[in-house]
């Protein structure tokens, strides 16, 4: 048995467990098992009943406000299980500090984290707070709603219905994000050459409606990746990276990011892929598995999401992952989704048809890139079979015209042919 983010071991009762109680109550809950050492070995307690009283007294005397919890004695091994439930009156403080879990460690919450806990305890979100600017105009939003919903008029009642204006006539942060001008960070786009040190183009989209920023990002994407191929008398549109996948990635980055951090959404455009990185990880109550399964249990920016839903920019349910994956259903190269505490990165590779390969041949083919040649040693580090088999597969790919070899000797590298 090992400690996890929501499970901690304590050999005996010391005040250090109170930090963990604060962390669990401030997040999604967790358990502390007393009578088990750090290695996960059961050592037992001399008096489990007295231990329960000690735990109860320490929590009631030290954690403000008092969290919800339960205690259970496990008679066979003389251990005590403390279960702390997610709190509704956040932040929960121990000695005037709020705590959180970082993997298996318990650490103090920073200033930004504390402000988020305060809002959560008031059942508020950042987008609901009054906007820093109140002289807002909504020409872009009005035009979009009129075109989509055939509105007859765009009035203050419209803004109230959308949740952007309260009864006192005050705009919130969601309203400022959708306004023609705003003071929030936007989208930073970089078009790279052969390496990350070579930037061919750089553009920052900011201080405009998020709807305008999305349009501008889509225009740059189309200029970079989309083209027309003439076959006979017909023009055929080509999208080596699906426009719909990129639209979904950037739209969801806008809707689901944290807006209380001064960081841009970052779009990195390479010859063989696009990366969309949005600030902020998942909402506290959402797991990585739920995100990857497209099960959106909570919306971080509910007001903004509702407006995007009315405009047909997002679906009612989900995080957009299924729609992105669907655009790659016939490609052997698939999109990747990376989740950390501070960011979510969506990587969209070039579409690639399966040339009829299978097994280890397909594995090697998928490892090769059309843009970045790789050495045999680099490829060997990524496969589980022998180097001699790898060389046979590479030779076969070259002979069938699927790959090419560049250089000679130790400098020899392999690259996919377009």
Keywords for this entry:
418 residues, alpha+beta, Methyltransferase, Cobalt-precorrin-4 Transmethylase, Domain 2, Heat Shock Protein 90, Arc Repressor Mutant, subunit A, 3 domains, six-stranded mixed β-sheet, four-stranded mixed β-sheet, 14 helices, flat
How are the secondary structure elements laid out?
Elements: E1 7-10, H1 17-26, E2 30-34, H2 48-62, E3 63-64, E4 69-74, E5 79-84, E6 93-94, E7 97-102, E8 105-108, H3 111-121, H4 139-149, H5 156-161, H6 173-178, E9 187-192, E10 199-205, H7 210-225, E11 227-231, E12 234-238, H8 243-256, E13 265-269, E14 273-279, H9 288-292, H10 302-310, H11 321-326, E15 336-339, E16 343-349, H12 359-367, E17 374-375, H13 376-380, H14 387-399, E18 403-406, E19 413-416
Parallel strand pairs: 1-2, 9-13
Antiparallel strand pairs: 2-5, 3-6, 4-5, 6-7, 7-8, 9-10, 11-12, 13-14, 14-16, 15-16, 17-19, 18-19
Helix pairs in contact: 7-8, 12-14
Structure explained in plain terms:
The chain is α+β, with helices and mostly antiparallel strands. The protein has 3 domains: 7-121, Methyltransferase, Cobalt-precorrin-4 Transmethylase, Domain 2 (2-Layer Sandwich); 187-349, Heat Shock Protein 90 (2-Layer Sandwich), CATH 3.30.565.60; 359-416, Winged helix-like DNA-binding domain superfamily/Winged helix DNA-binding domain (Arc Repressor Mutant, subunit A, Orthogonal Bundle). The chain has 14 helices and 19 strands. It has helices at 17-26, 48-62, 111-121, 139-149, 156-161, 173-178, 210-225, 243-256, 288-292, 302-310, 321-326, 359-367, 376-380, 387-399, and strands at residues 7-10, 30-34, 63-64, 69-74, 79-84, 93-94, 97-102, 105-108, 187-192, 199-205, 227-231, 234-238, 265-269, 273-279, 336-339, 343-349, 374-375, 403-406, 413-416. The strands form 5 sheets. The chain has a 6-stranded mixed sheet with strand order 10-9-13-14-16-15, with helices on one face. Helix 7 runs antiparallel to helix 8 (243-256) and helix 12 packs across helix 14 (387-399). The longest helix is centred in the middle third of the chain and has 16 residues, at 210-225. The protein is flat, with a radius of gyration of 27 Å. The model has no long low-confidence stretch (mean pLDDT 92).
